[in-house]
Specification:
heterodimer; A: 390 residues; mainly alpha; two-stranded antiparallel sheet; two-stranded antiparallel ribbon; 14 helices; B: 358 residues; A middle domain of Talin 1; 2 domains; 1% strand
C-alpha cells in the first residue's frame, strides 16, 4: 500500500519508490472539484495509470509520428552525405502517402505529420523539401564547398562529417528535423492537447471513450505526454532508441535546470489530478508544462549559442553553421506557445539580426550571439545563472 | 544527482570520493587564477600593444629596420598568446580572443580581397580566416616575394590600413580580456575563485577550467599545431600550409611554448597545481600507477619527441614525417590523460563534446 503525500510536499516524492500505485482520492469533498488545497493525491512515479486493472494510457499515434520524423531525418541526411534527396519522397513522407516509410506499420497507421503541422508552417517545410532536393541534386552533379551566398556541403571541424546547407549557411537536416519537432510535436502539445478544448474543466471526464478504458480528457493528456517522447518509466539515462527529439533535449537540460524532473512531475501529477477530477491541480500542472517546455527550449537555444561561440573562437565554420542551424530551428519553436514569455519581435530580432542579417549565418558576429543570449536570459531570468554552462 | 548527497548516510570509507572533497581548492584556484591566467593576460595585453606600436611605426615608415622590429614584436606577442590559449572561457570566449588572434590557416584570397575592396567587417565569421597573427605574418613575411616587393607593398594604403586594423583588433581584444579578469577592473578573477563555484559539478570553476584546456589541447595543440599539418585528418597526406606561423616559419618554437604553458598550468608554476591535487587525492591511472607521475612523464615524452625534430614544421614534415607523427602520438597520450584520467579522477564531466549527440 502506498503512502499518502501532500501535493505541497511534492519534492519528497523522489524518495518514494513503489511499483504500483492505486489511484485513490480520499479527501475530496463532495461539493466541489476545486477544493484542491485539502486534496492529497497518490502520484505514481511512472506513467502507468489503470482503471479496474486495465491500463488507461495510450499514445500510439504520437509514437508513430515520432517514428515518422526519425525516418524523415535519416532520409534528409542523405543530402549531408552528398547523395540525392527527392522532393516527392519527402512530400510523401510528410503526408504518409504512397507507402513512403521503411517501417510498414507506419504506412498503414493512418497517421501523418502534415495534417498535424502548425498550418502557417506547412508551406515553409514544403519549400525546404524543394530546396534540399535542388541543393542535393546540384551536389550530386558537381560537389561544391559551401561558402557565403553559396549552397553546398561543408565539413564540421575535422570530423569527416559533412552537412548540406543553403546559401545562408542553414543546414537542411536541422531546419527540417528540429523544425518539425516544434511545428508538430510542441505545437500539438501547446495548442491542441493541453488546451481547454481538450482538457478543460467543462468537458466530460466520466464517460469512457467507446471501446476504451479511458476518458477523453485522460487520453488528451496522454497524447501530450506521447509527443514528449520520454519512456513511461523515466530512466536515469535514455536508451539509444529513445535519444531523440524533445526527450533527448529534456535530458540534455536535466543537470542544470531539471527539465526532465519538472516535466515528469507535472505530467504525472496532472494526470493523477485528471483521474481524480481535481481541476485546479490539473490546471496548475498544465501551467507548469507550458512554462517548463518553454524554458527547456530556450535553454537549448542558449546551449547551441554557447556551442556557436566556441566554434567561432575555434574558427570552425562547419560546426558554427551546424550549431547555429540548431539554434535557429529551436528558436522558431519558441514562437509556438500561446503563453510564451518571449515576444514575436524578440524572436524575429534574434532570428533575422542576431543570428546574421536576414538569417544569413555567414554574417553572424560574437556580438550578435551575445545579444541573443542576453535577450533570452532577460526574458527567462531563471536561466541567467546557468547560461554560460548550458 | 545532487539530491542523493542529502539522503545517503555515510557508510564507512568512501575512499576517493572523500579525498576529492577533502582537497581545498581555494589556494589551487587562486594560484592558477592569479599567477597563471591573469598574469598571462596582462603579458598578452602588453605584448599586443607593442605589436600595434611597431605596426604603426612600420606603416608610417616602411623601412627594413621597422619591418624586422615588427616581426620581432609579432613573435613575442605570439609567444605570449601560447600562455593564454588554455584559458579560453569566460571573458576570453565572450570577447572572441582566439577568434581575433590565432585562427589558421588563413585564407590569403580573402585577405587580398578585403585589402582590395577596403571594405570589410572583421567581426563576421567569413573573416575569421582573414585576420589575426597569421594574417599579419602574411603581410610581414609575404608568400615567396622579395623583401623589396614586400616593403613596397607595405607602403600601399590598402595594405597599411589592413595591417593596422588587424593589429589594433588584437590589441583591443587582448586588453579587453585582461581588463575583464583584472581585480581592479572587471575582476572575473573573483568569479573564478568564488566560494559558490568551488567543487566539481557542472558550473564549477574546476569543470570549466578542465573542459577549456582539455578542448584547447586537443583541438588547437594536438590537432592544430601538429596533427592537421602532418596529415592526421587527411589520410596521411600532409597539409604543410595548415601550420601555425606558416609565413614566419617558427611554428615549432610556438609549439614548445605551448607545451611549456601546459606544464606550467599542470605544476602550478611552483605553487599548488594539478599535480598536487592529484597527489593529494591519490589518483591513479590504468594499471594502478600514480596519475600525477604519468602526466609528468608524458610532458617529458612530448618534449623529447619535439627535440627529435628540427627546422620549420613544413620542412620537418618533409624530411622527418615519422618524427613529427611521433610528436602527435605523444600529445595524443597526454590528451587522453587530461580528458579521461585527470577529469574522472577529479570527478569532472567532460561536456565540450556536443552532449546532444548530433
Amino acid at each position: 500500500m502506498s503512502s499518502q503525500i501532500s501535493f505541497k510536499r511534492e519534492k519528497q516524492m523522489r524518495k518514494l519508490a513503489f511499483l504500483y500505485v492505486l489511484i485513490v482520492s480520499f479527501a475530496l469533498s463532495s461539493c466541489s472539484d476545486d477544493d484542491g488545497d485539502d486534496v492529497s493525491l497518490d502520484v505514481p512515479d511512472t506513467y502507468n495509470f489503470t482503471r479496474d486493472g486495465s491500463s488507461t494510457v495510450s499514445f500510439t499515434g504520437q509514437t508513430n509520428r515520432l517514428d515518422m520524423l526519425s525516418e524523415i531525418k535519416a532520409y534528409v541526411q542523405n543530402g549531408d552525405q552528398g547523395q540525392l534527396v527527392e522532393e516527392q519522397t519527402l512530400l510523401n513522407m510528410f503526408a504518409n502517402e504512397n507507402a513512403p516509410f521503411s517501417d510498414a506499420d507506419l504506412n498503414t497507421s493512418g497517421k501523418q505529420l502534415e495534417s498535424k503541422t502548425f498550418s502557417p508552417d506547412i508551406a515553409y517545410y514544403k519549400d525546404l523539401f524543394d530546396q534540399v532536393a535542388s541543393a542535393s541534386a546540384a551536389e550530386v552533379a558537381s560537389p561544391t564547398t559551401a561558402s557565403a551566398g553559396v549552397a553546398g556541403r561543408i565539413e564540421r571541424g575535422t570530423s569527416g562529417k559533412f552537412i548540406l546547407v543553403d546559401e545562408k549557411g542553414q543546414e537542411f537536416t536541422q531546419l527540417i528535423e528540429k523544425g518539425l519537432m516544434g511545428s508538430v510535436f510542441l505545437y500539438q502539445i501547446y495548442n491542441v492537447y493541453l488546451t481547454d478544448a481538450r482538457i478543460g474543466d467543462d468537458l466530460d471526464n466520466e464517460t469512457l471513450v467507446e471501446g476504451k478504458s479511458y476518458t477523453a480528457v485522460e487520453h488528451h493528456w496522454d497524447e501530450a505526454f506521447g509527443y514528449w517522447g520520454v519512456p513511461i518509466d523515466f530512466p536515469g539515462t535514455l536508451a539509444d532508441e529513445d535519444r531523440r527529439f524533445w526527450a533527448n533535449y529534456s535530458y540534455g537540460r536535466e543537470s542544470l535546470i531539471g527539465s526532465v524532473t519538472k516535466l515528469k512531475n507535472a505530467f504525472l501529477t496532472g494526470r493523477t489530478a485528471i483521474a481524480n477530477d481535481v481541476n485546479n491541480i490539473k490546471k496548475e500542472q498544465r501551467d507548469i508544462l507550458y512554462q517548463e517546455f518553454e524554458l527547456m527550449v530556450a535553454a537549448t537555444v542558449i546551449h547551441y549559442i554557447n556551442d556557436a561561440v566556441s566554434d567561432f573562437n575555434g574558427g570552425d565554420q562547419g560546426n558554427l553553421l551546424h550549431h547555429l542551424s540548431e539554434a535557429h530551428a529551436f528558436m522558431r519553436s519558441l514562437r509556438l506557445s500561446p503563453e510564451k514569455a518571449i515576444s514575436d519581435d524578440q524572436i524575429n530580432t534574434i532570428l533575422n539580426s542576431d543570428f546574421g542579417t536576414d538569417g544569413d549565418l555567414w554574417t553572424v558576429t560574437l556580438n550578435g550571439l551575445q545579444t541573443a543570449k542576453t535577450t533570452l536570459t532577460t526574458v527567462y531570468p531563471s536561466l541567467a545563472d546557468v547560461a554560460d554552462d548550458l | 544527482m545532487p539530491a542523493l548527497a542529502g539522503i545517503w548516510c555515510c557508510n564507512g570509507d568512501n575512499g576517493l570520493l572523500d579525498k576529492i572533497n577533502d582537497f581545498d581548492q581555494r589556494p589551487f584556484l587562486s594560484n592558477i587564477g592569479e599567477n597563471l591566467i591573469v598574469s598571462s593576460y596582462q603579458n598578452l595585453s602588453i605584448k599586443s600593444a607593442d605589436l600595434e606600436s611597431a605596426v604603426d611605426e612600420l606603416t608610417s615608415n616602411p623601412t627594413l629596420e621597422n619591418l624586422e622590429n615588427t616581426r620581432s614584436t609579432l613573435k613575442t606577442a605570439r609567444l605570449a598568446w601560447q600562455k593564454c590559449s588554455p584559458y579560453q572561457f569566460g571573458p576570453a570566449e565572450t570577447a572572441g580572443l582566439s577568434a581575433s588572434l590565432n585562427i589558421y590557416p588563413i585564407d590569403v584570397n580573402q585577405v587580398e580581397s578585403n585589402i582590395a575592396s577596403g571594405s570589410y567587417d572583421l567581426g563576421i565569421s567569413t573573416n575569421l580566416d582573414a585576420q589575426g597573427f597569421q594574417a599579419i605574418g602574411y603581410l610581414l613575411y609575404g608568400n615567396g616575394i622579395t623583401q623589396d616587393s614586400l616593403l613596397t607593398r607595405l607602403a600601399l594604403v590598402g595594405y597599411t590600413d589592413y595591417l593596422s586594423d588587424l593589429a589594433t583588433k588584437i590589441r583591443q581584444v587582448s586588453e579587453q580580456v585582461y581588463s575583464d579578469w583584472a581585480p581592479a577592473t572587471g575582476n572575473y578573477l573573483a568569479t573564478f575563485t568564488s566560494e559558490e563555484r568551488l567543487g566539481v559539478d557542472a558550473g564549477s570553476t574546476l569543470a570549466q577550467l578542465i573542459n577549456a584546456f582539455s578542448q584547447d589541447f586537443e583541438r588547437n595543440v594536438r590537432d592544430g599545431k601538429i596533427g592537421i599539418p602532418v596529415g592526421i585528418r587527411s589520410l596521411g597526406v600532409p597539409v604543410p600550409e595548415a601550420s601555425e606561423a606558416f609565413f614566419s616559419q617558427n611554428s615549432i618554437e610556438l609549439l614548445e611554448a605551448s607545451i611549456q604553458a601546459y606544464e606550467d598550468l599542470y605544476t602550478g608554476l611552483g605553487s599548488t597545481g594539478f599535480d598536487d591535487y592529484l597527489e593529494e587525492i591519490g589518483a591513479t591511472a590504468t594499471g594502478n600507477v600514480n596519475l600525477a607521475s604519468s602526466i609528468s612523464n608524458q610532458f617529458d615524452a612530448i618534449e623529447g619527441a619535439i627535440d627529435a625534430i628540427s627546422g620549420p614544421l613544413p620542412q620537418a614534415i618533409e624530411s622527418n614525417k615519422s618524427g613529427v607523427e611521433n610528436v602527435f602520438v605523444e600529445m595524443q597520450r597526454l590528451a587522453v590523460l587530461f580528458k579521461t584520467n585527470l577529469s574522472s579522477a577529479l570527478g569532472v564531466a567532460i561536456t565540450y563534446q556536443d552532449s546532444d549527440g548530433d
